[in-house]
Design a protein that fits this description.
The complex is a heterodimer.
Chain A lengths: L2 H5 L2 H20 L3 H23 L8 H13 L6 H17 L1 E2 L2 E2 L3 H13 L17 H15 L2 H20 L5 H4 L4 H12 L10 H22 L4 H39 L1
Antiparallel strand pairs in A: 1-2
Helix pairs in contact in A: 2-3, 2-4, 2-7, 3-4, 3-5, 4-5, 4-6, 5-6, 6-12, 7-10, 8-10, 8-11, 11-12
Chain B lengths: L5 H21 L5 H7 L7 E6 L16 E3 L10 E3 L13 E10 L2 E10 L2 E12 L9 H8 L11 H18 L3
Antiparallel strand pairs in B: 1-4, 2-3, 4-5, 5-6
Classes of the chains: A mainly alpha, B alpha+beta.
């Protein structure tokens, strides 16, 4: 596949968007640490991914998924995070991608899973600097433009709208009834995090549903779980926990569908057997 | 999978934006807290004894040298001035005795500390309110560090820059409150 063709694939779109955000946020914050962290995260992710592919004796393919995972991790972790923490978070993410699988596809969004575990394990401070959390408010436009382009490309509007709509509705109710800290969640850097998360993490193709109805349930479930956790406990893990619950829903859905089709197939085979006998 | 019609995309986007705007506007009154922290326009309130006694038992008189020094700690990666209380004795006390509160904050929350000063020495530092979105465990050792160093400058907990900065700002604010004119 040529580079031009690859750039038109969903992974190409996301990679290009993440690289653009990395560059814009680094220039805006006049900080090169983010680029250094991104280099470490991407390198470690690629190495671990290749090792697993070799172990599993898979044919060579471009490790673009690992590149995206590394980029997302580095855009979310604070730029002052040590290389070690960035590297270990990336390793956890890629491990989850290869070990927690169902029908050769990861169950959990790798970046979200790695970032979720990095909070209790390494007390990471997630800044969402790559979502322009520390830059002027208007820079959110970059997220929206990139987000809409990708969502259009991969047909994930039902999921994105149900996620954002449910999140904002619940936060509005929280603010109205003075429950939790909706004030922070509706403003930078948290609103940047919600938009970035909704457009670029929730929509991960292998770990999110394709059918419109499933997308809506997935978006609502992720948003409701995350926002309720935020309302009760605050913190920064709420969206990742929400996504893991959404991923679990999708996994169970796939498994139940698979079992039903298997049962039908068995039934069919039995009938065929009877008829043949 | 069929693509969503553009009209629906616009309609749904407008609906989501409307819900967000409703939430934003309804919480606007409470948002001053966030803004004030981020803009570092926090007000500090001195509590306890704010005696302005100027007597001291100083041996090495250094006059009224300013005790605000600039610091470039590599560990902390924080390029900020920090207030260091004088280790030597002076002819005149630079700080009032008492307990002073200070607040430090950023877009990710705020930390309030109560700093007790006696005879130009920090004798106690307490985190009186922790309202960061990060874990309080990241900064739990910093009060002791301030007492040991007699300085608002503390070692940065790896990666926990936002909490450390807010804590450091809070201590600086408290010490500034204690400064004699």
């Amino acid at each position: 596949m040529t580079t031009k063709k690859w750039l038109k694939t969903p992974k190409g779109y996301v990679t290009l968007a993440m690289l653009s955000f990395l560059l814009i946020a680094s220039i805006g914050s006049k900080d090169i640490n983010g680029i250094l962290n991104a280099s470490v995260a991407v390198l470690v992710s690629i190495i671990v991914d290749i090792i697993f592919n070799v172990i599993k004796k898979r044919t060579w393919s471009m490790p673009d998924g690992a590149i995206i995972t590394g980029l997302i991790i580095s855009l979310i972790l604070g730029t002052t995070s040590s290389f070690g923490i960035v590297a270990v978070t990336s390793v956890i993410a890629i491990l989850s991608k290869h070990l927690l699988v169902y029908r050769k596809k990861p169950i959990f969004n790798p970046a979200a899973f790695g970032l979720l575990l990095s909070v209790p394990f390494f007390h990471t401070e997630q800044s969402w600097w790559g979502a322009f959390g520390d830059l002027p408010t208007w820079t959110i436009l970059f997220l929206l433009v990139g987000g809409y382009k990708i969502t259009t490309r991969i047909n994930k509007y039902p999921q994105v709208f149900s996620f954002l709509g449910t999140s904002f509705l619940l936060l509005f109710l929280m603010g109205h009834f003075n429950i939790g800290d909706a004030v922070d969640a509706l403003r930078a850097p948290f609103i940047n995090a919600t938009i970035f998360f909704g457009f670029f993490m929730l929509t991960d193709l292998p770990t999110s549903p394709a059918k419109d109805k499933d997308q809506v349930v997935f978006g609502i479930l992720t948003a409701a779980t995350g926002t309720i956790i935020y309302g009760l406990f605050g913190g920064l893990m709420y969206m990742f926990i929400g996504l893991c619950i959404g991923n679990l829903y999708y996994f169970l859905k796939k498994r139940s569908t698979s079992k039903v089709s298997l049962n039908r197939s068995d039934l069919g085979n039995t009938r065929v057997g009877r008829y043949q006998s | 999978m069929a693509k969503m019609d553009k009209k629906w995309v616009i309609l749904c986007s407008t609906a989501v934006a409307a819900v967000y705007s409703a939430g934003f506007i309804s919480t606007e009154a409470q948002a001053t807290k966030v803004d004030s922290h981020y803009q570092a326009q926090v007000s500090n309130q001195a509590i306890g004894d704010s005696s302005s006694t100027v007597t001291s038992n100083n041996n090495q008189a250094k006059g009224n040298n300013s005790s605000i020094i600039s610091s470039n700690s590599n560990q902390a990666k924080i390029d900020k001035s920090s207030i260091v209380l004088p280790k030597s004795n002076q002819t005149k006390r630079l700080y009032k005795d008492g307990t002073f509160t200070g607040m430090g904050g950023n877009r990710r929350g705020s930390i309030e500390v109560a700093v007790t000063i006696k005879n130009d020495k920090i004798t106690d530092v307490e985190i009186s309110n922790f309202d960061m979105h990060y874990s309080e465990r990241d900064v739990v050792g910093l009060p002791n560090e301030v007492i040991q160093n007699q300085s608002s400058q503390v070692r940065n907990v790896s990666g926990a820059t936002y909490s450390t900065e807010a804590f450091q700002d809070a201590v600086q604010e408290a010490i500034s409150q204690a400064q004699n004119a």
